[in-house]
Each structure stands twice: as structure tokens, then as C-alpha cells.
Amino acid sequence: MERPVEHRSDSVKIPMWKSALLWVVAILIMLSAVIYQRRTGPTYPMRGEIEVAGQSHAYRLIRSEETIRDARVAVPNPGDVVSGTLFFKRYKTDDPFAPISMQSETGKEGRDEGERQWVGYLPAQPAAGKLEYYLELQIDGRSVRVPEGDEQVIIRFKDPVPLPLLASHVLFMFFSVLIGMRTGLAALLAPSTMRRWAWVTLFGLTVGGMILGPFVQKYAFGEYWTGFPWGYDLTDNKMLIMWVAWLLACSTVGTAPKKKELVGRIVVGVAAIVMTIVYMIPHSMRGSELDYSKLDQGVPATEAIGTGD
Questions:
Q1: Judgement on whether residues 152 and 60 belong to the same structural domain of the protein
Q2: Which of 44, 68, 172, 199 is least enclosed by beta carbons within 10 angstroms?
Q3: What range defines the domain where residue 100 resides?
């Protein structure tokens, strides 16, 4: 009597061109999500342009800084700026805006190296402290507000995070999301590789998000976890949603091939879609925020941190 042939879908090899194509598509999706996050996230620099004599001068206004130094706010100096003033106040307070005179400096690092700039320095705040600010420049006898209209820039301060820890967290999260997107494409087009990559995704999210992530949060803002069920930190809650989605996906597909993979393919596909949607939500929204009203009442800064906008 012949033995039934065992179903080994995971051992089926897909053509090299197909595998390469799936990776290329996953990378393109990932890069698009990263660019979108950098354009919309509340901690990335605010971008805009200043019009001077018919020419546009691009600026980037800082929205995140470490507590160990004052925040350097800089805009291009096209040579026609007579003076500049930086106005700031503590976020969500009735404080009046305080002026700081800006000075002409030369950029010393990165893309600003050698560029003439008008610069002002915001005073460093405790961890999770936020300031709102705007600039007024005197150009050709007229006052130019940056940013335009009534909008203020909001900057948040954080304690330093050790570089090896932060780099490990970022790398694990980057590659976990990349592999998760590749796994979702596999569920749709190459299910023989789906199971392996699903478990790799879950492993990466567990290490990068559920283990290293809380340590980064602890260094930056003094708490390991400020998401559900103890808070409303959207970054922590995003991580939790992604992790649970992939935990369910891996629990469904298991570790051994199945004769009918349809349910597993659907669950893995849903997990990849959830990951993509969640990842597109701007980073650091509703994150740790210092309550200045408590600080003014004498509450220590480390105990006056909640979750905010």
C-alpha cells in the first residue's frame, strides 16, 4: 500500500525573477511609507519657502530636540534680512510669546554647511516639554512671518537615547515592516514563502517594537509604555496593533504546511494591510507631553508627563 504524498507547500521554490520582483515592490511600498511619514510626522522638520525678490528660499524648522541643549532654529539668510525675531511660549499655556533676537550665522554641518542663516535658540525644556514658536523677519522694509498666517511650530524635547539602542530599534522596525509587506505580497502571489516570512516579521516586531521600543521610550520620556491600557500614546498603540495582527497571522499559519492555505493567506494578507495602514499614521502623534500646569504647581517634571496631541 502506497503512502500518501505529504503536502509540502513551503518547499516549493518560486522563480528567482518573481522573488526579486516581490522584494522590489515591497521596498517601493516601504520607501513610500517612509517618505510620507517624514512629510507628515509631528517631530520631523516643518518645510516651507521664503519669497525674497522673486526667489524662493527653502527652510526647515526644527520640531524635536534633546533636553541637553537649546534648540537651534534657523532659516536661510538671502542677504536681504535686516533683522529677525524668534517668538516662543510654553505649549498649552497662557504665557505671552517671548521674543528672542536672531543672529546671522553660518551653517556648520549637513546640508546647511557654509550657508548663511538667521538663527535663534529656544531654551531647553524637560523631557516631553513642548514649545510653540514662530519667526518674524524684516526683509526689504517689510515684515515676513514664518510660517505664514497664524500657524505656530511645535517642538518637543526628549532625553538622549543611547545610539546603539536607538539604531537597533530603528533597524529592527524598518526591516520588520519591509519583510511584513513582502510577506503580504507572498500571501497573494507566492504562498510557498509566506509562512517563513510571517514568522520572521513577528520576530522582528517582537524584538524591535515590544522589547527595544519600551527601552527607547524609557530613556526618552521616563516610561516604558504609555499606550493601552495605561495611556493613549499612538506610537505604542500602533506597535501593539501591528504585533497582535502578526501574532494572529502566525498562530493561524502555524509552523507546518497545510493542504488548504486559503485561510492562512487571508489572515496574513490582512496583517500586512493592517501594518501598512498603521505605519502610514504619522509617528509620535499623541505621544508623551509635559503638563506645564502641573509643573507650575510644584509637581516634579518626571511626574507631570501624560499623553497629548
A1: yes
A2: 68
A3: 46-158
